[in-house]
Amino acid sequence: MKHLSPYKYMIALVLLFSVTSCRKDIPQINDPGQYVEANFNEIFDAYWNGMNNNYVFWDIDTVDWDRVYRTYKPLFAKLNANDSVDVQKAYTYFKQMTSGLVDSHYDLSFNDTWLADSASINPAYQRKRASPNYHPGISILHFYNVITSKYLDPDRVRGFTNFPDGSQSVATSGTINGNILYFYFKDFRLKGLFNTDTMNGVKRVETWFFDKLKNKTDIKGLIIDVRGNGGGALEDLDFLVGRMIDKPITIGATRSKMGMGRLDYSPWAPAYVRPHKDARAITVPIVILADAWSVSMAEMTTMAIKTLPNGHFVGERTWGGNGPLTGNKFYNGGRFGTAFLNEVYTSSLTFRYRDNKIYEGIGFPPDVEVKYNKAELDVQIDRQLETAIGLIK
């Protein structure tokens, strides 16, 4: 099984940010998929040039891509593409070349049958596993069973929706002490599931939560829980956070590649959250819970709520993969493939938060840090959630 494979479907973002750069309006890049790859010398050139043109973080990345060329070009030239041992050696080289890349969405998968059983290469995941602060994500059962039974009032709701690809969305919602509204969801497929013609488990939870959000008059605080959330559709930003505001808010800016130059970037364009048609301006404290396994849209939602004057972030520094992704047809940058490489999964845009800092590769820091504590979780104590409740009280 490929590392972080759940995130690959969850981070298929729908671009809603304000400026769209169409390929027909800007110079065309050389499509790496059109390179002839009869040998490893050509396989390396297709990949290296694809990264040189498509990767959006070269101005902040510490990897010297020219040095990579000088070091690995002769090593690949010695390999035989028809030798299984050499193919495995090439896999090792790809792992070495990408180990320091700042893009925390980055994932490299292969078409070659000799690598069919090899995990995709995910540098951020490998770095996280090697970190002295590494811990596993909180079990989904904690959110579905423990929180609902121990912390939420009896009228709480929970549900799940299964998909043909074997994935599953899960959501829970309820009140705490009668007047704190809580909402947890596993991934960002909220708008898509809500707009289905028939009821599903997640839609039922959303319907309950959105009704309380709009109509409950005695709310003292709101907790949005995106711990362990792997991201998803960017349209959910307006769909969820847009229900809590009565005017647009600027959360930062995005930038794309404009041409073939490594540093050929577009100007920064403002990134907004816009009010939903059913919006109600929430003035009570809004606390978002996020952790080291909160990725992509979970991070951007955390940033959006932190932007609000009544917004607070409790938990851990997030994953650090907040560059939006979209189809390569929209921008001169982002993911691509070659004959040898199934997909180079990489961000299409750079996102800069409203403080003018880029948190790619380092994660977004909490206002109140509460670290993962396995011993407490094992006895059904959720210190992060309890801190959020205490902050509201």
From TrEMBL:
Gene3D superfamilies attached to this UniProt entry: 2-enoyl-CoA Hydratase, Chain A, domain 1, 3.30.750.44
GO biological process: proteolysis
Intracellular or extracellular location(s): Cytoplasm
Record has Cytoplasm as a keyword: yes
Highest taxon of the lineage: Bacteria
SUPFAM superfamilies, per the entry: ClpP/crotonase (SSF52096)
Gene Ontology CC terms, in alphabetical order: cytoplasm
MF (Gene Ontology): serine-type peptidase activity
UniProt xrefs under InterPro entries: ClpP/crotonase-like_dom_sf, Tail-specific_protease, Tricorn_C1, Tricorn_protease
PROSITE patterns: PROKAR_LIPOPROTEIN
Principal subcellular localisation of the protein: cytoplasm
Record's keyword terms, sorted: Cytoplasm, Hydrolase, Protease, Serine protease
Classification via PANTHER family: TRICORN PROTEASE HOMOLOG 2-RELATED
Entry similarity comment: Belongs to the peptidase S41B family.
Record's protein name: Uncharacterized protein
Taxonomy of the source species: Bacteria, Pseudomonadati, Bacteroidota, Chitinophagia, Chitinophagales
